[in-house]
Write a structure and sequence with these properties.
The complex is a heterodimer of chains A (179) and B (689). By secondary structure, chain A is of the alpha+beta class. Helices cover 42% and strands 16% of the residues of chain A. Chain A has a single domain (27-171), classed as Ubiquitin Conjugating Enzyme (Roll), CATH 3.10.110.10. With 689 residues, chain B is mainly α. Chain B is 59% helix and 4% strand. Chain B has a three-stranded antiparallel sheet. Chain B has a two-stranded antiparallel sheet with strand order 1-2. A two-stranded antiparallel sheet of chain B has the order 6-7. The chains are: A alpha+beta (179), B mainly alpha (689). Chains A and B meet through helix 1, strand 1 and strand 2 of A and helix 25 and helix 26 of B. Chain A: The active site is at residue 116. Chain A: Residues 1-31 are annotated as: Disordered. Chain A: Belongs to the ubiquitin-conjugating enzyme family.
């Protein structure tokens, strides 16, 4: 009898815990959603040229699609890059996960689209927002950090802008639906 | 023994021969026989009384004179007395006689007698003590018993009459108490008079007192009901004249303590509101005044607010649909003299108004009244401002309107201190909170800064140009008119602009030249004219100092291509001042005043007051649509092509989006026509640049 009793206790306890967790999660999700909503509003109103982002669907505010245009005067001029932005549930205390969906030949972007940008890693702070991240990425395109490259070949080639541009265009795939 | 007609002489029952006869009968033990004989005779002869009744009642029905009723009663009483005379030994059979007589004679009364009696009795009221004999008759004839309801009705009639005499239109003094007193006094006199004999006879005073109490209770109800009915019919004027009508409202409160009159009262109130208030012809300001008074009155009548809860929603809904309601409310809120702004209650911060409220520590807590609706919630005690503001779901509208109002006021103020404006903004901060009124604070600061800038640039000496520099983002959008001030005005403007740039190099200065005022002094050959004019008017007359004649087109061009209407109205202004003359195609400056011609001087044209620089609703909507357009652009940039329902769904991310799909479709279609969007295969996408 005794063992059965303790068994049932130990069975119940985790069940109780799991019942509590979603509610606190839900609350947190509420405040994150609010923050993301505000950031979206801020981004829509900022009208900075060449950067944009929007949630993928109206059901989920945590997955966004972004578009970055290369700045005039750089090798990325007139090129449009799609990126995906995923916000963790404890955003803004943890940086969003961002990757290039359009192949991007760039010293700080690897072949899978992963990005090496300090503010997305150890320099992340809760005061950054989607808008600031997008602006940073846009400027990163024109001013790569060649000291910590993910794509060493590109980093080496950076000094030769003409050849670099050729590589950029070879890797570049225009956004499909834009045709 | 047999009844005879009244006209025949009566044989006295105690006369010797009658006595003798009776003795004989007594001896023979024939009383039952005798009694039967007498009763059958009575029944046989009762047709005489029936004739009598018919005669008098016909008179009554023909002339409606209560005298007929009195005569009838007197007459029947005479019969009753005469036939009732009986030998002494038959006294114990008198009860039977009375019962029989009453039953017969009451049976032959027609229905119209009730009304006749009621009216007749009314006439006896003024001189009750003198009518003691009459009430004795009524009691004897069984009328008091049979028509007891009528007797009570008489009293009610009288009370009603007194209410109707003394109450209608008398709202400035309490009436209820005096009516109650007079009714009680009347009741006492009346009941004692009517039923006094009966109770003295039955010697049962407890019963009498109980009956009295029941009647008193009913009378009290009756007074309350009558007064509530009367006041309900007058309620509109009472509310409009509040607080002068406070006594009437207090009376109502006392009457309404019994809740059974509340449904009728509420119904009446709603009807009045529908008929008098919720009409297109009613001025919004009046509606608000009425609503405010209504709140105050109902607070007194029903402190829990159930009645208000039932009456107010239509008014609130109606006000919500009135485009100028917000403006009226805001104007009142900033009006120093507005009574409800001076209420001493602690202002309730408005954010809390919509929350349900239950104060469990309140020692005066009462349960919800029975007639409270299902959706009735005890609301936080609200002052009037909060109630008005809570008509709308958001307070943004008020802040916007306040901003506009403040803008209009500040731009009209000339150099006088802004204490009033600052005061009212501070007061409103207590309600709306600091943050929403930030905008207004900035506007006030702009005014002060402008003052400082002017002092800085011109020194303490008065300068011909006084400028108000406003921060574009914090003021309502003001559309500048492309007015170019000519001549000396332009010089002043240019000097100021140059100095301003030196003073504040990081700021851009954009003129809103049509606002403001100019004190103009015209030195003409024979006279000087001094007027206050608008910049456009001043500009026009300045141009006349260059040459004496102008036509409208040239003036328009010289002033920077402003609208013809504006120039025309400025010219009309000067014509009205007698400075310019309309000579058909050209206007001429009158250096010498023209003697008034035979025709009366042209009436000074009505200068169309320009509305304060307020955005129209459509403009606001367009502004909002601009925000939505940003969102649509954002989603189409990143998600390439979307069907309309996805766009509609995604727009929920835009704050305050409330358009229907149809409205969105119209909007998208207009964007397509402008070449901003492309529509293919049921999908919308951005047009390629």
């Amino acid at each position: 009898m005794d063992t059965l009793h303790t068994n049932s206790m130990s069975l119940r306890e985790p069940a109780l815990k799991s019942a509590q967790e979603p509610s606190s999660n839900k609350q947190a999700a509420g405040s994150v959603t609010k923050r993301l909503g505000n950031e979206l509003m801020g981004l829509m109103m900022s009208s900075s040229p060449g950067i944009s982002a929007f949630p993928k669907s109206d059901a989920n505010l945590f997955d966004w699609v972004g578009t970055i245009e290369g700045v005039a005067g750089t090798v990325y001029e007139d090129l449009k890059y799609k990126i995906s932005i995923h916000f963790p549930s404890n955003y803004p205390f943890v940086a969003p996960v961002i990757r290039f969906e359009t192949p991007c030949y760039h010293p700080n972007v690897d072949l899978h689209g992963n990005i090496c940008l300090d503010i997305l890693k150890d320099k992340w702070s809760a005061v950054y927002s989607v808008t600031t991240i997008l602006l940073s990425l846009q400027s990163l395109l024109g001013e790569p950090n060649n000291d910590s490259p993910l794509n060493t070949e590109a980093a080496d080639l950076w000094s030769n802008q003409e050849e670099f541009k050729e590589q950029v265009l070879r890797h570049y795939q225009p956004i499909a639906a834009d045709d | 023994m047999q009844p005879r007609p009244l006209s025949e002489p009566v044989v006295p029952p105690d006369s010797p021969n009658v006595q003798e006869a009776m003795q004989y009968l007594h001896y023979r033990n024939m009383f039952p026989e005798l009694l039967r004989f007498r009763n059958s005779g009575l029944l046989k002869c009762f047709s005489w009384i029936e004739d009598e009744v018919r005669l008098h009642m016909e008179q009554w029905e023909a002339k409606m004179a209560v005298q007929s009723i009195l005569r009838l009663i007197q007459r029947v009483y005479e019969w009753f007395q005469t036939w009732g005379q009986a030998p002494a030994f038959m006294k114990h059979a008198r009860g039977e006689y009375i019962a029989l007589f009453r039953a017969r004679w009451l049976a032959c009364l027609p229905p119209s007698f009730t009304l006749g009696l009621r009216l007749f009795l009314r006439t006896t009221l003024p001189s009750l003590p003198a009518n003691a004999q009459l009430f004795h008759m009524l009691e004897q004839l069984g009328i008091s018993e049979r028509f007891d309801k009528t007797f009570i009705d008489v009293m009610f009639d009288e009370v009603e009459q007194r209410i109707m005499d003394s109450c209608p239109g008398m709202w400035r003094e309490p009436r209820l108490e005096s009516i109650r007193t007079s009714a009680r006094e009347l009741e006492e006199r009346w009941l004692t008079m009517v039923y006094g004999h009966m109770f003295v006879r039955t010697q049962n005073n407890d019963w009498f007192r109980n009956a009295m109490m029941m009647v008193t209770g009913r009378l009290d109800h009756f007074i309350s009901r009558t007064l509530v009915e009367l006041r309900t019919s007058e309620i509109f004027d009472i509310i409009v004249d509040f607080p002068d009508t406070l006594p009437a409202i207090q009376d109502l409160r006392l009457c309404m303590a019994r809740s059974q009159y509340r449904p009728d009262f509420i119904e009446g109130l709603r009807e009045v509101v529908n008929q008098r208030i919720l009409q297109p012809a009613a001025d919004t300001d009046d509606i608000i005044t009425f609503y405010v008074s209504l709140i105050r009155c109902l607070r007194i009548i029903d402190s829990q607010g159930v009645i208000l809860h039932k009456v107010a929603p239509p008014i609130r809904k109606y006000l919500r649909d009135r485009p100028d309601a917000v403006r009226c409310i805001v104007r009142r809120m900033t009006d120093e003299n507005e009574s409800f702004m001076q209420e001493t209650e602690q202002p309730v911060p408005i954010q809390q108004v919509h929350e349900p409220f239950d104060d469990y520590t309140d020692p005066h807590w009462l349960p919800e009244p029975v007639d409270a609706g299902a959706d009735f919630r005890t609301t936080r005690p609200m002052d009037i401002v909060s109630t008005l503001v809570s008509i709308y779901d958001t307070q943004d509208l008020f802040i916007k309107e306040l901003q506009h109002l403040l803008a209009a006021r500040l731009l009209a103020v000339r150099n006088s201190p802004l204490d009033d404006e600052i005061g009212s903004v501070e007061k409103l901060k207590q309600r709306f909170g600091e943050a929403p009124l930030q905008v207004c604070a900035v506007m006030l600061k702009d005014m002060n800064d402008s003052r400082r800038t002017n002092t800085h640039l011109h020194g303490e000496t008065p300068h011909p140009l006084y400028t108000t520099v406003i921060s574009r983002l914090f003021w309502p959008t003001i559309q500048p008119v492309p007015l170019k001030m000519p001549g000396q005005f332009k010089e002043l403007q240019d000097t100021f602009e140059a100095e301003f740039h030196k003073f504040k190099p990081d700021k851009n200065l954009r003129w809103v030249p049509q606002l403001g005022a100019v004190s103009v002094k015209l030195d003409l050959e024979d006279r000087t004219v001094e007027v206050e004019a608008t910049p456009i008017q001043a500009g026009v007359i300045e141009l006349f100092s260059e040459q004496d004649t102008w036509n409208v087109e040239d003036l328009m061009a010289k002033l920077g291509g402003i609208d013809r209407v504006l120039v025309q109205s400025a010219l009309d202004f000067w014509i009205g001042e007698g400075v310019i003359k309309d000579e058909g195609s050209v206007y001429r400056l009158l250096e010498q005043a023209e003697a008034p011609t035979g025709a009366p001087p042209r009436p000074r044209p009505v200068v169309v007051e320009e509305a304060p620089p307020v955005d129209e609703k459509e403009k606001q909507q367009a502004e909002q649509m601009k925000i939505y357009w940003q969102f649509i652009q954002g989603m189409l940039t990143n998600l390439s092509a979307l069907p309309i329902d996805r766009i509609q769904g995604m727009l929920k991310f835009a704050p305050g989006y409330d358009r229907s799909v149809q409205e969105l479709a119209v909007f998208l279609e207009s964007a397509r026509r402008e070449g901003l969007l492309v529509f293919t295969n049921g999908m919308w996408k951005l047009a390629k640049k």
